[in-house]
Amino acid sequence: MMNGEIMLKNNASGLKDRDIIELNVKLDEMKDSYRKLQQELDQSRNDDKLEELQKQIYIMNQEMESNQKAALEKEDCLLGDLSTANELVRLYKRRSNTYAARVREAKATIKALTVFILKSLLLKPPCSTNCRSKLCREMRR
Fold first, then answer.
1. How far apart are CA 61 and CA 116, in angstroms?
2. Given this model, what pLDDT does residue 136 score?
3. Does this entry carry the keyword Coiled coil (predicted)?
4. In sequence order, what are the residues at sequence separation of 6 or more whose Cβ sits closer than 8 angstroms to the Cβ of residue 135?
């Protein structure tokens, strides 16, 4: 029986070795499959990330274009306002120059009238004190 037991043990150990080899082969196959699936998953994640980033880039480009249009419209509006302000300044300067010229003319006219009145008073024959004081009062007004 010893020989039979040894044979049984050898057969049993042979089966075990064969099973172990098969299991190792299956394990290696599973590891390869796992690596492949992991790579595919990583690639899929990368593709998803890439797709998400592309969507974000597209949205940002749309926002940028919208902001550029808004900026151009605002710039046009501000340029119009600036043009209007410059025109108002030009008109104000022209008006103030006109008014300054009129003021100078009025001063010259007043001065000429004052000189004329004083000359006429000096050339007139002397009048009474009441008359002179009356004229002085009128001139002061």
1. 81
2. 66
3. yes
4. 121
What are the pLDDT digits (tens) for 6-48?
Answer: 554 555 555 577 778 888 888 899 899 889 988 888 888 888 8
- pLDDT tops 70 at residue 110: yes
DSSP one-letter code for 126: P
Rounded to whole angstroms, how far apart are CA atoms 37 and 129? 128
- State how many domains the chain has: 1
- Rounded to whole angstroms, the Cα distance separating 12 from 64 reads 75
The reported pTM is 0.44
In a domain, 79, yes or no: yes
The type of residue at 28 is D
Place of tokens 């082969």: 25
Q: Is residue 128 part of a domain?
A: no
**Which residue range is the domain that position 110 belongs to?**
2-122
